[in-house]
Write a structure and sequence with these properties.
This protein is mainly alpha-helical. The protein contains seven helices and three strands.
Amino acid sequence: MSREAQVRFCESRGVRIPPATLLIVGFEYQDDAERFLGVLRGRLAEFSLELHPDKTRLIEFGPHAARLRKARGEGKPETFTFLGFRHIARMSRRGKFWVQRVTDKKKMAAKLKSVKAELMRKRHLPVPEQGKWLAGVVRGHQAYYAVPGNTKANNAFRYHVTTLWQRSLSRRSQKGKVEWGRMRRIAGYYLPPTRTRHPWPEVRFAARYS
């Protein structure tokens, strides 16, 4: 962007901003970011709107953030959560900067909580029916979260789903405890394995633009 911070809304077209709008803006220079934030606050105030005080912040993020913070005696670069992912500034072993996207722990916990509640309602259904439903849950989770660099979190989600399923099956009767060895075989048959299902962002960008 240019060095002049411009914040404009199409008032004549009746554009309305939802109260929970999420916005992330990147700048090369810190003074540009600070000026933009000030202008944005003032512009929103004209429409009786405001930024959430606890969810609005300036962070140092990017390929030089770690080096600059280390020179100042500060810790690792801050992270931010957006659209269900925690974004982390990383440097590869070859010294290349990349942004790691990891499943937000709160999002995962909420999903597992809903899976647990639904399993309690379905625990007396035949195992194949439960397996078909849980396979859809794991497959749907991976369809969104199976991005490069997020394999560990996806493995954790599948593991926790398997654990919840084991507990649910074990409560179907007093003598029906399912041992972990058998549960691994059941999960291996019904639940899809964890694998990366999305390309790197630069690969997708190159496929769309020359």
